[in-house]
Every structure is written in structure tokens, then in C-alpha cells.
Amino acid sequence: MSRNAESTAFRSALEVIRAVEPRVADAIGAELTDQRESLKLIASENYASPATLLAMGNWFSDKYAEGTVGRRFYAGCQNVDTVEALAAEHARELFGAAHAYVQPHSGIDANLVAFWAVLADRVESPALKKAQVRQVNDLTEADWFALRRELGNQRMLGMSLDAGGHLTHGFRPNISGKMFDQRSYGTDPATGLIDYDRVAEAAREFKPLILVGGYSAYPRKVNFRILREIADSVGATFMVDMAHFAGLVAGKVFTGDFDPVPHAHIVTTTTHKSLRGPRGGMVLCQPELADQVDRGCPMVLGGPLPHVMAAKAVALAEARRPDFADYAQRIVDNANALAEGLLRRGATLVTGGTDNHLVLIDVSGYGLTGRQAEQALLDSGIVTNRNSVPQDPNGAWYTSGIRIGTPALTTRGLGTAEMDQTAELIHTVLTQTTAGANADGTPSKAKYALDAGLADKVARQATDLLATYPLYPGIDLS
Ligand SMILES: *Cc1c(COP(=O)(O)O)cnc(C)c1O
Prior knowledge:
By secondary structure, this protein is of the alpha/beta class. It is built from 19 helices and 17 strands. Helix content is 46%, strand content 14%. The strands form five sheets. It has a seven-stranded mixed β-sheet, with helices on both faces. A hairpin with a 2-residue loop joins strand 2 (67-68) and strand 3. Helix 8 packs parallel to helix 9. Pyridoxal-5'-phosphate binds at residues 44, 106-108, 166, 168, 214-216, 241, 243-244, 270, 281. Pyridoxal-5'-phosphate (PLP) binds next to helix 5.
């Protein structure tokens, strides 16, 4: 395929859009420029391939396809069946999963599907069996009332937010925290690592229905074999949310005890983070849960997005190619180089390093909050996000950490030498930024000072660093 094809495709698409609403076409063009020019270290973002992007912009978007492959509530779904079946097949083969459900619109939606699947399997189905009826509609009012109380009184044990867990793992600002009685496990204060004995102890005391593994901001591998043993010891269903590190599982960087798929009863993920697909979610599960998982739409999900399922099929096909394993290994090599570069310059990292795609800098050593550091880095052309560190004294809004990740820059082609230069830029900004004060003289958690000339200089150096590795080299919109 000629590179020219990509330029032609996107230029033509913009021309068609421009004829209707030129401001949208301009914003799409401007977004490409912004993405090309910024040093993107957001651990959850990536750059999907042109093929993945193009698979989303078409008439699949017009089709209703409630139901599953071959069992739709709408007529004329044969082509949707083709792409959904392909996406599921690629997902099963890629991850070695018994079953894949590719309809969830996002990671959060995938988690909701998984929660309801487990509740239905462990609570609703036994209640129906006991009442000798097939559907909830056939229950007596008294049985229905009792079942609703049962469903609303289940327990979930997940990783605490400040140790890197996700809001959807049973925390109150999210519906999961209102659906479940939640308790969380943290990390060892001395090492920053998960203490599996403490997890086992919490499980024994709390007896959760669901034990959740997985994280958004934990820079280390997780031993899923041990977590499964803990779940089994208390009769819990073991769920893993691999939203962040699915690409490392797909690329066989995480194998054996560190691959969640053979160990968990049910695995959820996003498709747009390290997996590098379209924005979306997915559920993989053991055969026993497949029927419940397939009820995701319309149980908790809106109608499927066939255009996104088409893009999932394309991206998963890409992830099955040998060069994706190479990509996944480079993500981890780059994160290591970034961590070493920062450590060598005196930074403090949560757990002292990384063995995945992300690094968590504790910026309190620079006398800054996460918010101040995030803004100062942004002024300098470096896009990161602030994040709590374990036992964070600054809470979830200001925080004391900066989370950085390498999936996006690795997609552009940057390597370990550039990661060392990136560490230098980050270190320069953080050492040169000073915390500001409030009007009454008390220290501010938001205000900061950074010399504008220095910020500009770093931003230029960041642009230079990126110049050798153009984003979407095959796309020229000019
Ligand atoms: C990002 C993330 C999600 C949410 O994914 P969305 O696609 O934004 O809904 C869920 N769980 C974890 C662990 C995540 O990191």
C-alpha cells in the first residue's frame, strides 16, 4: 500500500467534512498538529494506526445490532456479524481466552458488564433456581424483593485508589462503590509493592464475592496466580482489569504468573491504551460466564457500535503480528530507561522503578505538588498527568505524584536514548519550578513559578526530540 493512500484518505475525508462544518474539519486538523508537537507521556494514551482510525469512519455507524453474532434483535446484521466475530476471534487467539465479548464502549462499561455477569451468575441465577422460575419477571414480589436486597449486599475487594487502583473497582464516586460493599488492599509502605499476605488476610476477613486485580497507576507486575489462589481460598470470583497493560499481555511481555488471562475467571480491558486500538472496551472470560457476559447489551450497555467493533478487529489483527511483541518489549525497555534516567538525576520513584509501561514520580522531593509539577511540565511542552502516590498527604486533587508512561512515544519510534533525554527535560523543569504562596502567605498547592524562557527552551528541546520521529509519517494534510 502506498503511503499516499493514507494522505488521500484523510485529506478527502476532511474535504467532505469541511463542506458541511468547516470548524470541525479545522479542529480535526489542529488535533493532529497538537498531537504531533507534544511529548505525550500520558500512560493511558496511544496513537491508533491509520487503518484502525479509518475502519471507524463509515456506514457501520448507521447500523443497530443489539444482540450477539447470529442472534440479533434487528434484521440485516450479517456484515456486523462478520466484524464482531472477527474481533472476538482475534481477541481469543491473541489472549488465549475461551470467550471474548467485544461490544463494551469503554473500559468502565466493560467493568459494568463483568460486575453484572458475576452478580447474575453467583446471586441471581441461584435465586431463580431456588424459586424454580426461569426469569426475574416470574418471581413473586416477595422473592424479587429478597433478590434485590441480596444483589445489593455483595462485597468487592480491590486495590486502593492511592496505591494505583481504579475508581470503578468499588469506590464511592463510581456506581461500583454504590453497588458493592467495598474494601481495598494497599501496598507495603516500605517497598510500595503489593503485599500478597495482607491481601490474603483482607480476603479472609472480608469474604468478598469479587476479588479485583489490576490498576491504573502501579508501576510493577502483579502475580495473578497468587491472587487467584487467594480468591479460591475464600470462594471469590477473580476479576482482572487489564485496561492499562493489555498491550503488554498481548505482546507476551507479561507471561506465566503475570498473564491474567489463564488465572482470572473474567478479564476486562480497554482497547485504546497500550493495546493501541480504537476507544473501546472488551471482556474475556471462562466459558461458565460467557452467557452472562454476552447479555452486556442491553443489560448495562447501549446498542453496539459496529464501526468501533470493525476497528477493534483491525487493531487486534495488528496486535497478533510479530512486530507488536517487539513494540510491547520496547514500551517496557523505554519505561526502564526513563526510570533509570530519572533515578540517576536524583528523582524519587514509587517502588524505586518500573517493570511495566509506567513510572510514578513522587514530586514532593522537588517541593512540589502533583498539580504544580503537571502544569509546569505542560508549560514546557511535556504532557503528563498528576496522580496520587501511596498514602498521599495531598489527596486525590493536588496529589504528590506525576504518572508518566511510554506506550505513545514508543509508537512514534522513540527509543532508550531519547528516554534519557526526556528524563533530563523532566528533571530540569521539576528542579527549576518553585512552589508559590497564597495571598495570606501560606504555601499554595496550585501556584508555582517557572521561568518562561526556560519553559520555552525545554519545549523547543522536546520538539527537536520528536522531529526525528514524525507521528503518522504517511499522512500529509497540507
Ligand atoms: C482507563 C481505565 C478504565 C476506564 O476506561 P475508559 O475506557 O476510560 O472507560 C478502567 N479501568 C482501569 C484500570 C483503567 O486504567
